[in-house]
Amino acid sequence: MSDLDHLLDLQANDTTADQLRHRRETLPERARLVELDERHRALEQETAEPRAERDRLAREQKRLEDEVATVEEKAASVDRQLYGGGVTSPKEAQALQADLESLKRRQSQLEDMVLEVMEQLEPVEAALAESDAALGQVATERAQVEAALADAEQAVEAELAQVTAARAELAAQVPTELLAEYERLRPQMGGIAVARLSGPTCQGCHLTLAAAEVDEIRRRPADALVHCPDCGRLLVR
Ligand SMILES: [Zn+2]
Fold first, then answer.
1. What single-letter DSSP state applies at residue 1?
2. pTM score, two decimals?
3. Backbone angles phi, psi at 180, to 5 degrees
4. Cα-to-centroid distance, 235 and ligand 1 (Å)
5. Cα dist from 164 to 16, 24, 32, 186, 225, whole Å
6. How many domains does the chain have?
7. Structural domain harbouring 223
8. More confident of the two residues 99 and 223
9. Could you tell me the distance, in angstroms and rounded to a whole number, from the CA of residue 20 to the centre of ligand 1?
């Protein structure tokens, strides 16, 4: 095998490694994760307002219920005074009775207000429950996709490790200067630095060389380094 044949083997190995790295970067699970994160953000954004409304109504309900409890306590206290046997004058009893009735009315008003707030809360809670369920679905799928991504990455990494391990041996077969030329050209040539000249066609750029150019190349010594006049890649004759 000539030095250039060895270089072609190295090129094939490097191309496989490039393809594997590209596959690793473009695994479909990665795009799906981006979509899911966008969906999560959108749902969070949608629920910000109903959440604030729910919290406001819940605070209102708590405030009203606390007030009901206070009024209830006061009423119980007046009730004890009234029927505890300590009241002797009918006037005092009448005043306490009036107090008690007023407190009962207030309690009933407050309880109606609690019910109103609870009615307002109901549809907000229902909408939030739906959003929470959707967020839960997103989280579940995200975990599945992350696991699938990890598996796919691991598979590519394993292949890449094999290809990378083989590279050192392949590179050792190529003379230092030729290897340096190859490494210099590769980044400029989209990863393909050496190509076969197949008939009059460069397999790197797929352009057909002029007959005179092909003749000129054929006349060069077998070990001479020849570049494609069109793309500049190293040619293997
Ligand atoms: Zn070419």
1. -
2. 0.69
3. -65, -40
4. 8
5. 10, 15, 29, 17, 27
6. 2
7. 178-236
8. 99
9. 25
